[in-house]
Specification:
CATH class of one domain: Mainly Alpha
Radius of gyration: 19 Å
Strand content: 5-15%
Number of helices: 6
Shape: elongated
Distance between the termini: 43 Å
Largest sheet: 3 strands, antiparallel
Length: 139
C-alpha cells in the first residue's frame, strides 16, 4: 500500500527529527535534500548524508513523497501541518488521557504554564463557536 492509498490515521507519527524536516517542507514547499539541509542543518549540526538518509526513511514510511523525474529528487510532505498535528494529538490524547479532551486541556492550562491573555481569548472564542455549532445541530 502506497502513502497515497494509506489512510492518514494509519501513517506513522513522525519522530522529532522527522518533524523538523516536515516543518521545513510545510513552510517552504516541495524541496530537494540539499535545500532542506541548508535550511535546518545550521542550527541542528547535521550532515547532508544524515538528512538524505532521514528523508529516505520518511519516504519508505509514507511521510513524504518523492518526485524523481529530475536529477535532484524533490520531496513533499504527504499530509499538511494541521492534519499531522491533529493525528498526533488524537494519538497522544488517547494514550495519555484516555481520549478525554477536557482532561488534556485542563492539564495544559492548569499545570504546565499559565496561559497568556491572548491565548485565553482564543480559547474562549473557540468555546463560544463550539457551543453555537452545538446549538445549531440540536435544533
Amino acid at each position: 500500500m502506497t502513502s497515497q492509498e494509506m489512510p492518514l490515521n494509519e501513517l506513522p507519527a513522525p519522530t522529532p527529527s522527522e518533524l523538523k524536516i516536515l516543518k521545513c517542507l510545510w513552510s517552504h514547499g516541495p524541496s530537494t535534500v540539499r535545500e532542506v539541509h541548508e535550511r535546518i542543518a545550521a542550527d541542528q549540526h547535521l550532515s547532508y548524508t544524515t538528512i538524505l538518509k532521514q528523508m529516505q526513511i520518511m519516504h519508505a514510511k509514507g511521510l513524504v513523497e518523492r518526485d524523481d523525474s529530475q536529477r535532484a529528487h524533490v520531496f513533499r510532505a504527504v499530509t499538511g501541518e494541521d492534519e499531522t498535528q491533529r493525528v498526533m494529538l488524537d494519538d497522544f490524547m488517547t494514550r495519555v488521557y484516555e481520549g478525554s479532551a477536557s482532561r488534556l486541556v485542563m492539564q495544559a492550562l492548569g499545570m504546565s504554564r499559565p496561559a497568556r491573555p491572548e491565548e485565553l481569548a482564543e480559547i474562549d472564542s473557540l468555546i463560544r463557536k463550539l457551543r453555537q455549532s452545538g446549538e445549531a445541530t440540536e435544533s
